[in-house]
Amino acid sequence: MAHEHKLEIFRGLVKFKSNTQKIWGVLIFLTIVTAIEVVLGIYKPEALNAQILGMKGLNWIFIILTIVKAYYITWDFMHMRDEKGSLRKMVVWTGVFLVCYLIFILLQEGTYVFDVYNGDDAIIKRDF
After folding, report:
1. Nearest to 72 by CA among 80, 63, 62, 84
2. What is the CA angle 74-48-68, rounded to 5?
3. Where are any strands of DSSP class E within 1-127?
4. Are 82 and 5 in contact (CB under 8 A)?
5. Which residues 6+ apart lie within 8 Å of 89 measured at CB?
6. CA distance 35 to 19
7. CA distances in angstroms from 78 to 5, 68, 72, 94, listed in the order given
8. What is the pLDDT of residues 4-34, one digit of tens each?
9. Sorting pLDDT into bands at 50, 70 and 90, what band is 1?
C-alpha cells in the first residue's frame, strides 16, 4: 500500500493538487526567502544595525531566515512531515540545540577576538 504525502504547506494554509505542485511551491517559497537574504546582504539597511541581544538586528534576521529555510527543507523535501512524532522531535531538537550551541560559540569567540584586537594592551591593532 503506497503512502500518501500531505499536499499542503504552512500548516494547511496552502494546498496543492499534486506532489509536483507542492515541490514547486516550496521551491518558490525558499527562493523568495533566499532573495530577501541576498537583498539584505547587499544593501544592509542602517535601521537594522542596532544592537539586539549582543548582535546586530541584521544578523538576527539572517539567522532566523536560515532556520526557516532549514525547517522547510527538512520538513518538505526530506519528508519529515510524514514520519512518526518521536523521530521528528529527535531530529528537530538535535538541530535546535546544535544551532543554539553554535550561536553561543560565535558570540563568545567573536567577543574574545574583538577584545584581543581592540583592548588597551593589545599588541595587534586592526581597523574593523
Report:
1. 80
2. 5
3. 8-9, 14-15, 51-52, 55-56
4. yes
5. none
6. 24
7. 12, 15, 9, 16
8. 666 777 666 778 788 788 888 888 989 999 9
9. very low
